[in-house]
Amino acid sequence: MLIMTEDKNIPFVSVIMPVYNAERYLEQAIESILAQSYTDFEFIIINDGSTDKSWDIITSYAEQDPRIKSINQQNKGVVETTNYAANIANGVYLARADADDISFRSKLYDLVKCAKSNTQADVIVGSIEVIDNNDEFVYRELVPIYDEDIKRAMYMRNPVPNGATLIKRSIFQNAGGFADVFAEDFHLWVRLAKTATYAGTGTTVYKWRMNTSGLTFTNLNLSMQKETEYTELLWGDSHPKTISRQNIITRANEYLSLSSRFRIDYKIVFLTDLSRLSVHRIKRGDIVGGFWQLLILASTGRTGLRIALKRVSLVVRGFLHKPINNRPSSNVSTHEEGLEDRSM
Question: Which terminus of the chain has fewer CB atoms gathered within 10 Å of its CB, N or C?
């Protein structure tokens, strides 16, 4: 079943794809959008001063599909290009797609379905698979489905993959769009954390390419630095609250009830984020609160106990004074993390 807007002249979604020298992967990226099972969208592709054959590829597709709005411009950078595309978009929601990534055929359908089910949500986000330059699977990033869980993860990392999002155009524009900073997407998600509501689809919708020649990969240290800098904006405003035992149990079982083959992993990501955030609280001087949250987590069942004990061991062994890997691997071995524990 397709979800459409009431006004047939206004697309529900505007897909935005800025392009710069992406000829190697561009056809695959464009075709993955045109093949979407959900069809109520316009597709804005802007060639941002490419010096390769990107524009030729774009025009060849634009001649075949009227949903494509193709624009050729001098190089202005991804931030200005994306903001411009948002300003000329007609959709109720905006969706990003990078020119070297792949969208699952169900991406827009899953995002729109979640938006329709969570009308109060301003930003909808799905999980992603990370692939290499040869389209080979590397690992999976699972995004929590609840607003408070997504925002809790923001205290440690960027849990919102840009190409797997749907954002209300009005919210994006009211926020002033992307700021002209590095890692502009996470900067926006943090800025919106105070006022916007997030929701996750509980499905995998996008393949993000770990492109060794891409901007993020070639500036990995800067990217990590900016990610840490933006999380500080959240810590400066408020600190995470302690979650009760019953609420942890309820939420963990809600993740187990997801109609997804990764539901165990969603639960583990939730519990692992909670344990890691407890350590961050300890590092920032909230020793009682951090250890109390770990103790509560440990009391919730075998999985919670195992994750809490692992985190405590890191603290005791001096890992407090070393950089902590804040990005949980969603491609965990569920047997090692207590797969047999089907409930809390």
Answer: N
CA angle 239–147–240, rounded 5-degree value: 10
Shortest CA distance to 310 belongs to which of 282, 275, 284, 338? Answer: 275
164-194 residue pLDDT tens = 999 999 999 999 999 999 899 999 999 999 9
Instruction: Give strand pairing partners of 165.
Output: 125
Inter-CA distances, 150 with 61, 199, 285, 291, 337, Å: 36, 8, 23, 22, 21
CA distance 142 to 148: 15
Pairing of strands 137-141, 123-131: antiparallel
- Going 47 to 106 to 265 to 189, the CA torsion angle's sign is positive
CB 48 within 8 A of CB 117: no
Q: Angle 220-237/184-192 helices, nearest 10 degrees?
A: 10
What average pLDDT does the segment 86-110 reach?
A: 98
Structure-token pair, residue 309 = 């004990």
Cβ atoms of residues 190 and 120 within 8 Å: no
Q: How far is CA 188 from the centre of its chain?
A: 12
Q: What is the DSSP string of 123-137?
A: EEEEEEEEE-TTS-E
Question: CA–CA separation, 261 vs 143, rounded Å?
Answer: 14
What pTM does this model have?
A: 0.88
pLDDT tens figures, 276-302: 999 999 989 999 999 999 999 999 999
- Cα–Cα distances (Å) from 64 to 16, 21, 31, 61, 115, in that order, read 18, 22, 12, 5, 30
Q: What is the DSSP letter of 319?
A: G
Contact yes or no for 16/89 (Cβ under 8 A): yes
